[in-house]
């Protein structure tokens, strides 16, 4: 019995390791290839772009492609081009920052207040509204894209960053997550505070928010990653290429700039990675709590 | 602990994030500066309107209006080429030296002539037999003709054969004269072998002396014997012996005297013969050495020899002088030798006379004592024997010298013999060749006479046969045509012959050699130009290809400037004609300029011709005009506003050049306010981002 258990564990570990490797490979490939020369990259992936019908990059992983992890000659020329020679990529990086940072902050503010409302306000309307929020959350973004465009146009926000930031502020998923998190706060705690003379604002800032710190971190990280990697919204809502974020540039890569794309992707990864590492524990904790609540 | 570590980790990550963002900010701040530094800096100019006084430019190669081709109609060997391409030649300048061999064309022409003649004769002999057979005159004429033809054919001797025989004879004669010269030299060498003669005469002389001494010694011995037996000496014998010796010596003296006289006579004869030459020689020598005089012969001789040695070989009369001097010198030397011999013989005679007197004195003094007599005789005998042995040793030496000299002499003799025999052979050969030549010449005379006879007989026969009936007339026409053919062929042969004898090809025009198409040692090809000479007097032209539009802007008679020919500033180019350019496909025209002045064919020159001025809306500097395989274009600066400032990009604009002068070009395809790039700090491509120059002046 014990032997069998060990065998099963070993097999599962191997399978898990294989999956881990498979998921890690693109990231590792991106980082290592960013140190290759353009000619080496062209030699390795030229076939992809030759066969590709467009520039979507769908055929990145193809049998004919020579996937190489070790550069023939390590070079920083791609980074030098990206960071020093041309301000275009830096501009796009800051575009991304300018778009994502307000969205994350505003969404946290709006969502936490909404969630507090859903937690503290009792009645039939609340249930209906919460149900409506969940329905909205289940809808894919593409469904709401056209109404978003029309509303932006109507408000005169088209071709401005607000066309992306405004819709980003009001996200049902973060409301749902924070509501679930706040409902876990024992009502006795809030009542004790009330008895001690705390106002509703004090209860919200001094009791609810500290209690939901991990959930807030989780929401922030998820929202950041979501909007940091957005492609459709800027393409649709921002016509001016100078305002578009770096993610759009990465999606429209062409054959001559594959090397640059690797370098840009590596740099582009850094903020996400740092944010994740900083809030890693909260993220795990927050999502785990949701699970336990759900469970 | 765990909480502390986590907090530390978060702090670290936060720090890293801050550093990352700060770096990105800094890079962004400096990015525009860095990028601008790397961009090519360009200067621009706005498109303007104005007037252009355009010039049509073009270049071409100067060609002579007329070229003369040196053509050979025969295959001939080129011996040497005397000019090279680019040389200036005058009329009569030697161009080529050809071999004088008969060409294949000439041989062919001669064969063709022969065949034509044969055919003609055959026809004349055979045609219209039916009516001619009964005609006795015709028959006789035919017979005569046949005979003449036979004579002609049997005696046919061509000029070539004669000239060949003449050549053989001349070369044989040359050999003969060379042999004679050689033989003469050898004989002279033999004669001048004085050593041999001297040695021989010495040997003879010594032999005689030995004989005499032996006779004398025998006489003395006899006298001694007689004295021992009888106590008396027979002086008669000694006297008679001495007398005989004296007689012999005297006869030898008279013989030497005779030889001397003969030599003297020879000298006189030679002197008379060479007197004039000798006098002129002496006069010439005095011209060089004024102190030369006849009285001092040795000095005169040395002067003459020095004079002859220093006189150049091509001086007229030098050979005569040399011969005269040689002969007279030799005569004088012979006389000197003979004189020496005579004086020797005279001394000998005197010695013999003394000996006779002594013998007679001996006889008269016979009353001396027997002892003293014996002693006297013995002394004489001893002396005679000593003289004998001395003479014998001298004879041995002389004999050795004679042997050495004679061996050298015998080689010479052998050589002379060999040369004499070959000279005899050569003489025979010359005689034979001479006879052969005479025979050939005689034969040729016969041949020529026969040819004439054939001609005359033919004419007579033609006359006799002519005018009978239609078939006869037709035959006559045939004959006539054949005769014409023969005449033509003869002319051709004569022409070839005249060409063949001409070995020097000279230029018939004055000009510049454009090309030489043959090399020395190779054969010419009939009809092909051996050399092409540009005739200078006829002037030069140059053709420049322009567009139809450009051609409309000029008129015939316009003067063009020569722009790249610096070393001759007196070149004038005048537009002479405008013709269609066969290579332009209807889009181009050729401007034909007449060039005058100091220029050579083959020179590449650039011309510019003024075009009438015109107004244009879009004029750009020529420095902005670029060209590639797709045609002319300019790079226009387009600007774009970005959050980081204005970005300037070089954009390609295809243009068509309407007209241009030295600085500006009028183009179509640009807007009036476009900025065109004139200069750039780096090579530019369309689409390149550029930086405007900081302080445009």
Secondary-structure arrangement, i.e. CATH architecture of the largest domain in chain A:
Orthogonal Bundle
Oligomer: heterodimer
Strand content of chain B: 15-25%
Span between termini of chain B: 71 Å
Uncertain segments of chain A of ≥5 residues (pLDDT<50)?
52-63, 291-295
Order of helical and strand elements of chain A = HHHHHHHHHHHHHH
Net shape of chain A: globular
Task: Show the helix and strand layout.
The complex is a heterodimer of chains A (295) and B (697).
Chain A: H1 2-33, H2 38-51, H3 77-85, H4 87-120, H5 124-138, H6 141-155, H7 162-169, H8 172-183, H9 187-195, H10 200-211, H11 213-228, H12 232-237, H13 246-251, H14 258-294
Helix pairs in contact in A: 1-14, 3-4, 3-14, 4-7, 4-8, 4-11, 5-8, 8-11, 9-10, 11-14
Chain B: H1 2-38, E1 41-46, E2 48-52, E3 55-61, E4 63-64, E5 67-71, E6 78-81, E7 88-89, E8 94-98, H2 104-126, H3 129-132, H4 136-154, H5 159-191, H6 194-230, H7 235-288, H8 297-310, H9 318-364, H10 370-465, H11 470-501, E9 504-506, E10 511-516, E11 529-535, E12 540-547, H12 548-552, E13 559-562, E14 572-580, E15 588-596, E16 604-610, E17 614-621, E18 626-628, E19 631-642, E20 645-654, E21 656-660, E22 664-668, E23 675-680, E24 689-692
Parallel strand pairs in B: 1-24
Antiparallel strand pairs in B: 1-23, 2-17, 3-16, 4-12, 5-11, 6-8, 7-10, 8-9, 10-11, 12-15, 13-14, 13-16, 14-15, 17-22, 18-19, 19-20, 20-24, 21-22
């Amino acid at each position: 019995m014990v032997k069998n258990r060990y065998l099963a564990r070993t097999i599962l570990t191997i399978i898990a390791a294989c999956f881990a490797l498979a998921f890690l490979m693109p990231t590792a490939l991106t980082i290592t290839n960013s140190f290759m020369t353009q000619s080496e990259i062209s030699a390795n992936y030229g076939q992809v772009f030759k066969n590709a019908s467009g520039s979507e990059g769908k055929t990145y992983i193809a049998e004919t492609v020579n996937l190489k992890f070790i550069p023939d000659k390590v070079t920083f020329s791609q980074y030098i081009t990206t960071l020093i020679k041309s301000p275009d990529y830096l501009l796009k990086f800051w575009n991304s920052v300018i778009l994502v940072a307000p969205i994350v902050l505003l969404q946290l503010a709006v969502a936490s207040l909404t969630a507090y409302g859903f937690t503290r306000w009792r009645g039939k309307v609340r249930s209906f509204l919460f149900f409506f929020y969940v329905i909205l959350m289940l809808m894919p973004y593409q469904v709401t894209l056209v109404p978003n465009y029309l509303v932006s146009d109507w408000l005169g926000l088209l071709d401005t960053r607000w066309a992306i930031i405004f819709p980003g502020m009001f996200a049902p998923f973060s409301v749902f997550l924070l509501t679930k998190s706040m409902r876990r706060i024992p009502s006795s705690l809030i009542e004790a505070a009330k008895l001690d003379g705390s106002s509703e604002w004090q209860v919200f800032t001094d009791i609810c928010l500290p209690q939901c710190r991990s959930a807030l971190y989780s929401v922030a990280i998820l929202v950041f990653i979501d909007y940091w990697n957005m492609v459709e919204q800027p393409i649709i809502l921002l016509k001016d290429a100078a305002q578009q974020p770096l993610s759009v540039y990465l999606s429209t890569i062409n054959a001559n700039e594959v090397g640059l794309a690797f370098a840009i992707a590596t740099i582009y990864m850094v903020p996400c990675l740092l944010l994740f590492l900083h809030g890693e524990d909260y993220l795990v904790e927050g999502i785990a709590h949701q699970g336990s609540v759900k469970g | 602990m765990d909480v502390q570590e986590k907090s530390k980790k978060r702090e670290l990550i936060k720090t890293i994030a801050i550093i990352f963002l700060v770096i990105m900010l800094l890079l962004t701040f400096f990015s525009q500066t860095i990028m601008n530094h790397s961009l090519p800096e360009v200067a621009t100019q706005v498109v303007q309107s104005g007037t252009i006084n355009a010039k049509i430019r073009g270049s071409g190669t100067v060609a002579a209006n007329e070229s003369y081709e040196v053509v050979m109609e025969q295959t001939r060997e080129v011996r040497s080429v005397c000019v090279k391409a680019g040389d200036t030649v005058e009329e009569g300048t030697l161009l080529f030296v050809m071999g004088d061999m008969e060409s294949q064309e000439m041989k062919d022409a001669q064969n063709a002539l022969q065949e034509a003649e044969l055919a003609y004769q055959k026809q004349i002999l055979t045609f219209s037999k039916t009516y001619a057979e009964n005609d006795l005159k015709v028959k006789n004429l035919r017979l005569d003709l046949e005979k003449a033809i036979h004579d002609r054919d049997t005696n046919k001797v061509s000029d070539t054969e004669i000239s060949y025989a003449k050549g053989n004879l001349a070369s044989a004669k040359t050999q003969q004269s060379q042999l004679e010269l050689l033989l003469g030299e050898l004989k002279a060498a033999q004669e001048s072998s004085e050593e041999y003669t001297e040695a021989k005469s010495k040997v003879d002389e010594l032999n005689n002396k030995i004989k005499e001494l032996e006779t004398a010694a025998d006489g003395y011995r006899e006298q001694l014997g007689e004295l021992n037996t009888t106590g008396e000496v027979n002086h008669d014998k000694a006297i008679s012996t001495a007398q005989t010796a004296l007689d012999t010596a005297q006869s030898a003296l008279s013989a030497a005297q005779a030889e001397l006289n003969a030599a003297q006579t020879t000298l006189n004869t030679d002197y008379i013969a060479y007197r004039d030459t000798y006098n002129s020689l002496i006069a010439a020598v005095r011209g060089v050495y004024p102190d030369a005089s006849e009285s001092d012969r040795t000095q005169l001789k040395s002067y003459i020899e020095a004079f002859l040695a220093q006189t150049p070989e091509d001086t007229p009369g030098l050979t005569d002088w040399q011969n005269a001097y040689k002969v007279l010198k030799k005569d004088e030397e012979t006389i000197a030798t003979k004189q020496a011999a005579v004086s020797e013989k005279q001394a000998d005679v005197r010695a013999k006379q003394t000996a006779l007197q002594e013998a007679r004195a001996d006889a008269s003094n016979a009353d001396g004592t027997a002892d003293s007599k014996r002693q006297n005789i013995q002394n004489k005998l001893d002396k005679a024997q000593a003289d004998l042995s001395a003479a014998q040793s001298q004879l041995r030496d002389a004999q050795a010298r004679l042997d050495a000299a004679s061996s050298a002499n015998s080689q010479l003799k052998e050589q002379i013999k060999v040369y004499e025999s070959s000279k005899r052979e050569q003489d025979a050969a010359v005689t034979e060749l001479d006879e052969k030549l005479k025979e050939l010449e005689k034969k040729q005379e016969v041949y020529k006479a026969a040819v004439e006879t054939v001609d005359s007989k033919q004419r007579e026969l033609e006359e006799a046969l002519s005018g009978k009936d239609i078939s006869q007339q037709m035959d006559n026409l045939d004959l006539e045509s054949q005769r014409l053919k023969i005449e033509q062929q003869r002319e051709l042969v004569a022409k070839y012959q005249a060409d063949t004898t001409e070995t020097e090809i000279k230029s018939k025009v004055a000009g510049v050699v454009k090309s030489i198409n043959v090399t020395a040692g190779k054969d010419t090809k009939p009809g092909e130009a051996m050399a092409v000479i540009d005739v200078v007097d006829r002037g030069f032209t140059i053709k420049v290809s322009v567009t139809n539009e450009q051609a409309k802007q000029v008129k015939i008679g316009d003067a063009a400037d020569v722009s790249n020919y610096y070393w001759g500033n007196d070149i004038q180019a005048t537009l002479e004609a405008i013709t269609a350019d066969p290579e332009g496909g209807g889009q181009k025209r050729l401007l034909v300029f007449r060039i005058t002045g100091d220029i050579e064919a083959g020179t590449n020159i650039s011309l510019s011709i003024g075009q009438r001025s015109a107004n244009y809306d879009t004029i750009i500097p020529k420095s902005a005009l670029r060209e590639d395989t797709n045609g002319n274009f300019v790079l226009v600066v387009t600007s774009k506003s970005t959050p980081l400032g204005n970005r300037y990009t070089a954009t390609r604009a295809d243009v068509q050049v309407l007209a241009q002068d030295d600085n500006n070009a009028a183009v179509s395809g640009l807007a009036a306010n476009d900025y065109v790039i004139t200069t750039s700090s780096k090579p530019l491509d369309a689409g390149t981002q550029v930086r405007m120059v900081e302080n445009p002046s």
